[in-house]
Amino acid sequence: MLTSQAETAHKIGLTPNKVSFIGFILASVSAVSYGTAQNYRWLLLLATIFLLSSGFCDTLDGIIARIFHQETVFGGFFDSVLDRYADAIVYAAIIVAGLSNAAWGTFWGPAWALATLAGSLLVSYSRARAEAVGIKMESVGLAERAERMLILAAFSIAAFFWLPALGYGIALLAVLSNFTVIQRALYVYKELKKKTV
Q: Is 58 among the catalytic positions?
């Protein structure tokens, strides 16, 4: 589906690592937009556009790598690290701006957002640890990164019209991301048990 975009990116000299870095920059701009959206509600829409653009780059870099045989161990590592930073700065911006507080107040708002941040990082960490011991984790779990980004984008758009919506979206992400970690832990446990039988 994104083959033509990958071919165009390759023609203009974009490598997978360059696309990964562009995605990180777009996520950073999204974070700045979230961080200042408390006073300028329209920035939520801008944050959403940059967030989804970052997600597009996260998909595109892998397609370029596969199509043009540019897959490297370092490329996979670099992409993964930038993705974690991207997730962290976006959720950190939401916490700093107090965007969850409209729904949950000054204690539970940041608490939900911190739970989302922790869950988001642990979803990826659990996959990395599982794959380090030879257990494939692709598509294991309810809320992988793409799903989380789409949920955040949808609730960010809703928050443009009604600010508390973002706080409810963050709470949903906290539940789904941490539930995904539990799903992955159970999957790894079952797979390891099979190997010992």
A: no
